[in-house]
């Protein structure tokens, strides 16, 4: 984490992500976008979470700069961990090693989740660095979610993978954003300061 990342912002985003991913319909939509487009789910939540906390929506050029290190991390660390976990699941059909293979798969999943947490720290750090000039002008409504900014930021990220996004991509993104828009997930005590 660099000096430009406030730990409370990264922690707020992570706690929001954990709650958000468990909301009805979200996991299915995330996995569909991930499978179909190669989109990074943890990055999507970090970016949408920043919008939900009231941070401004980046331009496509700013988004590319924000995501440079996080995309590299996605390709070098998260995707290989996911592939290894899937490989263990596929190869574990031998009854004699099934229990040990399941334990290994669970360990790989834990490392993948840890890698996603680290990716969110990269996203937050680079977002705050790139967007620093725009931060003082951002509207502040402490404690209230900024659904429109969250959705616009998530859509800007989605457009890096599909521009224009297909109807199914838009529908999956809407399913992901729905819990925030309905108020079924909350920002809790976290707010932008």
What is the mean pLDDT?
88
Q: What level of helicity do the residues show?
A: 55-70%
How many domain units? 1
Which structural category do the helix and sheet elements fall into? Answer: mainly alpha
Number of DSSP E strands: 0
Percent of sequence in beta strands: under 5%
Oligomer category: single chain
Give the termini separation. Answer: 19 Å
* Low-confidence runs: 1-5, 139-143
Explain this structure to me?
The chain is mainly α. Helix content is 68%, strand content 0%. Helix 6 (147-158) packs antiparallel against helix 7.
Question: What are its keywords?
Answer:
disordered N terminus; 0% strand; 7 helices; mainly alpha; 193 residues
């Amino acid at each position: 984490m660099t000096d430009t990342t406030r730990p409370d912002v990264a922690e707020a985003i992570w706690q929001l992500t954990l709650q958000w991913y468990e909301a009805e319909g979200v996991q299915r939509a995330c996995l569909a976008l991930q499978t179909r487009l190669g989109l990074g789910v943890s990055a999507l939540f970090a970016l949408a979470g920043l919008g939900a906390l009231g941070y401004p929506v980046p331009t496509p050029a700013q988004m590319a700069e924000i995501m440079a290190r996080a995309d590299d991390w996605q390709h070098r660390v998260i995707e290989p961990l996911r592939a290894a976990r899937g490989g263990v699941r596929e190869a574990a059909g031998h009854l004699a090693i099934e229990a040990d293979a399941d334990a290994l798969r669970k360990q790989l999943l834990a490392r993948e989740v840890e890698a996603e947490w680290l990716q969110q720290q990269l996203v937050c750090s680079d977002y705050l660095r790139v967007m620093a000039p725009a931060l003082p002008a951002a509207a502040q409504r402490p404690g209230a979610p900024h659904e429109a900014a969250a959705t616009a930021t998530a859509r800007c990220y989605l457009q890096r993978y599909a521009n224009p996004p297909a109807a199914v991509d838009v529908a999956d993104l809407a399913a992901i954003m729905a819990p925030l828009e309905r108020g079924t997930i909350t920002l809790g005590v976290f707010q932008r300061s």
